[in-house]
């Protein structure tokens, strides 16, 4: 790596003046990350956005992402979480495109941008130090995209470098790699083509000492041993990135700023513990309480503690914060010591599960899945293939998916947790949970399914793991609708309670919890969601809330989740084992209609009148697939029957005399046009065009040049129908004298006149 001093000496020897251009060049610092498969990632800083607290540009291939980070202290802020905002934008200019909206500029966030922002947030959030509560924002700009490398993993590494080089307190760096499997061969950072062919799309984010920070995966029912091997490979390769960023920070990183950590008075903590610890344990150990009653009991104790201590400690917020700390410590210590959870279950025991399908007859498919106090209602709706979800141009270039004929929409109304709020709002959380459930179910959908599938999942009750309940309920709803899925799918969430030494690097003790409750997710250290079929894994999302977990814990979590998922599948089979083979009366119908070329005009009608009438009166959708075939989609069989009656009426053949090829007929002119005349060979015939080129041996621009009028009869010769358009081919000029005879007769007549 060239140092600033060597650059300066080199430029001075060559007589180059040290202007601003070369000064900017000298300020740029970079490092190269060489992966084991020969690919190289470039990470640089110091040239762009120098007024930000930290900035880094990461490039892989010709795809480059710039990430900036800025953190500001907010006066009077005492919140216990990090107010972190991550905004990822895919600019059209990076792909050489212009936005197609009215303003021709980037507007709101797309679904892909939101999901990428979430995956960056989940990767960097666990490494902020406890007590850091400054407003922090990361802005990720896609500078250039080559359509080969996916920019999401590049963005995570750029964010890691930007935070590591900045003065913002952060316990990084981290490294992110993508792992794929093509033809049973493991590939690091596969390109877009390889991802489309891969049985696995796994993103691994790891910190120093092989600590796993985040996992996100989609798989095609991948076997468990192969999945575990891919995680180990990703963690090992991530260490190369961590080492490179650490070296860049050591040479060019800023000194981390100090921040005032809000410490709770130890006397206050002791006072809260002495007057409430026994009562808190009684509530947390009472397995007869449900979510609402347990929360109410804890809140009653909280109010009583605040009333008793507000005279000695005037800050009510500090008292409430100390009480929350005592509740969390007691909750975690009870599980670590007794290995018994607050609802009385053992560590790997599942909650009570019940399933129901075909809930409402008018729906194409429906199911209710209940697991403890988590309840979801899933519905399936079929529509024509034209209703597929289209992607925006930049998402097509970066992700490679032009349209989706299967998508899942997840809804989480406020009443699901006994709260009030704006109904129908669709935030980043709902989008992320729906995308996870969709990824889990997509591998089991038949690739040649003739309809577009919209699966909705509405959470009616929530006490943990509603996204995985959506996978279970969605699988049942699909089978209830008769979708021939390759295999049923289910999902489960696994949590962990850990106990660390003082350096937070050495794990003393831990307990893995299968099928976690909402309180176990909130007070635990991991939310590990795994979905799949009986055979293998289809999706995984692991969010770690501590600065990384050892690889051993992640491996065990996969095993616990896999066993729990299979147990759920056994329960689901008791309700519906295989997809329904008998179609419901309200199932949509798709027919292929062959329209000969000579009947196409009758079928479409003048100005598309017949097609518009068909859609308006019957509700069907008509799509042309090629020159002769049309797809007719009807919402049910009754609508298809009505559509068939109209189509038969449009194409009804009137009794028409047979025309002989090469025969001569008397045609009646019914209309004069600029390009020719419209004639009929018999009374009940549709008019046919006799083109100007076939009216006379001479070239004419309008039929009136020949003195033709409406109602006049002329002789024409029939040459069959055009094989493409089906139009009749008629000619008048072939019945006239040849051009040579006409010229000869004119020459003889002129000679006689001269004589």
Automatic annotation (TrEMBL):
Residues 662-733 form the S1 motif domain. The keyword Transferase applies. Pfam families: KH_1 (PF00013), PNPase (PF03726), RNase_PH (PF01138), RNase_PH_C (PF03725). Keywords: Nucleotidyltransferase, RNA-binding, Transferase. Its EC number is 2.7.7.8. CDD domains: KH-I_PNPT1 (cd09033), RNase_PH_PNPase_2 (cd11364). It is an enzyme of class 2 (transferase). It comes from the Eukaryota. Belongs to the polyribonucleotide nucleotidyltransferase family. This is polyribonucleotide nucleotidyltransferase. It comes from Orchesella dallaii.
């Amino acid at each position: 790596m060239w140092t600033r001093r060597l650059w300066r000496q080199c430029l001075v020897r060559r007589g180059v003046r040290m202007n601003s251009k070369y000064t900017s060049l000298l300020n740029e610092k970079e490092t190269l990350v060489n992966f084991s498969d020969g690919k190289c990632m470039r990470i640089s800083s110091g040239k762009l956005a120098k007024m930000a607290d930290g900035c880094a540009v990461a490039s892989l291939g010709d795809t480059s992402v710039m990430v900036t980070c800025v953190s500001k202290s907010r006066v009077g802020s005492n919140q216990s979480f990090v107010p972190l905002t991550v905004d990822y934008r895919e600019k059209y200019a990076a792909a050489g495109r212009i936005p197609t909206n009215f303003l021709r500029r980037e507007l709101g966030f797309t679904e892909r941008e939101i999901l990428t922002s979430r995956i960056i947030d989940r990767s960097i959030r666990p490494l902020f130090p406890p007590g850091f509560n400054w407003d922090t924002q990361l802005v990720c700009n896609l500078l250039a995209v080559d359509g080969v490398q996916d920019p999401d993993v590049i963005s995570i590494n750029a964010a890691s470098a930007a935070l590591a080089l900045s003065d913002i307190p952060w316990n990084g760096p981290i490294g992110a790699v993508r792992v794929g499997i093509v033809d049973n061969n493991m590939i690091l950072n596969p390109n877009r083509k390889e991802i489309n062919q891969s049985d696995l799309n796994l993103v691994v984010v790891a910190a120093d000492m092989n600590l796993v920070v985040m996992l996100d995966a989609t798989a095609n029912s991948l076997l468990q041993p192969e999945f575990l091997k891919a995680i180990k490979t990703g963690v090992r390769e991530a260490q190369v990135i961590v080492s490179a960023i650490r070296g860049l920070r050591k040479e060019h990183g800023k000194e981390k700023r100090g921040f005032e950590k809000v410490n709770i008075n130890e006397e206050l903590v002791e006072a809260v513990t002495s007057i409430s610890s026994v009562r808190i344990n009684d509530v947390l150990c009472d397995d007869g309480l449900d979510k609402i009653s347990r929360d109410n009991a804890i809140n009653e104790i909280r109010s009583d503690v605040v009333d008793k201590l507000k005279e000695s400690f005037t800050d009510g917020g500090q008292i409430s914060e100390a009480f929350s700390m005592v509740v969390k410590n007691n909750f975690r210590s009870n599980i670590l010591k007794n290995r018994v959870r607050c609802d009385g279950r053992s560590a790997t025991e599942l909650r009570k599960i019940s399933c129901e399908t075909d809930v409402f007859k008018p729906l194409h498919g429906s199911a209710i899945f209940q697991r403890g106090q988590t309840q979801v209602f899933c519905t399936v709706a079929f529509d024509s293939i034209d209703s597929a979800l289209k992607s925006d141009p930049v998402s097509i270039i970066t992700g490679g998916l032009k349209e989706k004929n299967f998508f899942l929409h997840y809804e989480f109304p406020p009443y699901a947790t006994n709260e009030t709020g704006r109904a129908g709002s669709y935030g980043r959380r709902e989008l992320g949970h729906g995308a996870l459930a969709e990824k889990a179910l997509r591998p089991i959908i038949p690739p040649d399914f003739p309809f577009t599938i919209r699966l909705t999942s509405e959470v009616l009750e929530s006490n943990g793991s509603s996204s995985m309940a959506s996978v279970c309920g969605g699988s049942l709803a699909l089978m209830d609708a008769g979708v021939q899925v390759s295999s049923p799918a289910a999902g489960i969430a696994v949590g962990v309670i850990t106990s660390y030494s003082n350096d937070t690097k050495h794990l003393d003790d831990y307990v893995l919890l299968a099928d976690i409750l909402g309180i176990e997710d909130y007070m635990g250290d991991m939310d590990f969601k795994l979905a799949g079929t009986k055979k293998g894994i289809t999706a995984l999302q692991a969010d770690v809330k501590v600065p990384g977990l050892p690889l051993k814990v992640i491996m065990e979590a996969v095993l616990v989740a896999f066993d729990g998922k299979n147990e759920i599948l056994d329960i689901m089979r008791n309700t519906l084992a295989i997809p329904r083979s008998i179609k419901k009366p309200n199932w949509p119908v798709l027919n292929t209609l062959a329209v000969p070329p000579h009947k196409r005009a009758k079928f479409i009608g003048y100005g598309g009148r017949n097609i518009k009438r068909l859609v308006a009166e019957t509700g069907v959708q008509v799509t042309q697939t090629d020159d002769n075939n049309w797809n007719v989609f009807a919402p049910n069989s009754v609508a298809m029957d009505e559509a068939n009656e109209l189509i038969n009426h449009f194409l009804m053949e009137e009794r028409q005399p047979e025309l002989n090829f090469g025969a001569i007929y008397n045609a009646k002119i019914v209309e004069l046009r600029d390009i020719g005349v419209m004639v009929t060979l018999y009374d009940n015939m549709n008019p046919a065009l006799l083109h100007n080129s076939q009216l006379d041996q001479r070239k004419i621009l309008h039929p009136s040049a020949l003195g033709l009028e409406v109602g006049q009869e002329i002789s024409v010769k029939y040459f069959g129908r055009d094989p493409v358009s089906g139009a009749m081919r008629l000619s008048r000029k072939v019945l006239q004298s040849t051009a040579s005879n006409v010229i000869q007769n004119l020459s003889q007549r002129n000679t006689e006149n001269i004589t």
